[in-house]
Amino acid sequence: MATRCLCFATIMLTASILMLEISAQIECGGNLVGLETQCLPFIKKEGKTVPPSAACCAALKGADISCYCKYLGPIESQISIEKVLYVAKYCQAKNIPTDKCGSFIIPHPPPSSKA
User: Fold this and answer.
1) Which of 12, 24, 25, 82 is most buried by its number of CB atoms within 10 A?
2) Distance between start and end Cα atoms, the chain
3) Nearest to 80 by CA among 40, 53, 36, 112
4) 3-state secondary structure of 32
């Protein structure tokens, strides 16, 4: 019985994640499958920040980055928001957030003092 409940819970969780992904792509544009397959290597937490591939930038074409920031909750522990923003800027994506993405507060440079 416990195995059935666990199996059902796993199926429901998977279905929920898939529904979130479908909602995100419909609402936010871009190519979600391409973003996952082509851009993931450039936004993982581990590793250096490197320029993304042309395929990653192509997947971002038409994507609303601020919109996708609302859907990052389930994967925030696996990706670097700083790298996400770097890739978005590098690829000249539209609507890149300036204040917050997921739970990440985007730092602003201190105001320059004119002497």
Assistant:
1) 24
2) 73
3) 40
4) helix
CA 37 vs CA 27, 41, 44, 104: distances in Å: 20, 8, 12, 23
For residues 32 and 30, give the distance between their C-alpha atoms in angstroms, rounded to a whole number.
6
Per-residue pLDDT tens digits for 3-59: 554 444 444 444 434 444 545 556 788 887 888 889 989 999 999 999 999 999 998
Distance CA 14, CA 19 (A): 9
Instruction: Tell me how far CA of residue 24 lies from CA of 28, 40, 90, in angstroms.
Output: 6, 16, 22
pTM: 0.71
Task: Say if CB 74 and CB 103 are below 8 A apart.
Answer: no
> What is the 8-class DSSP label of residue 64?
B
What single DSSP character describes residue 11?
H
Name the CA radius of gyration of the chain, rounded.
17
Residues 6+ apart with CB under 8 A from 37: 59
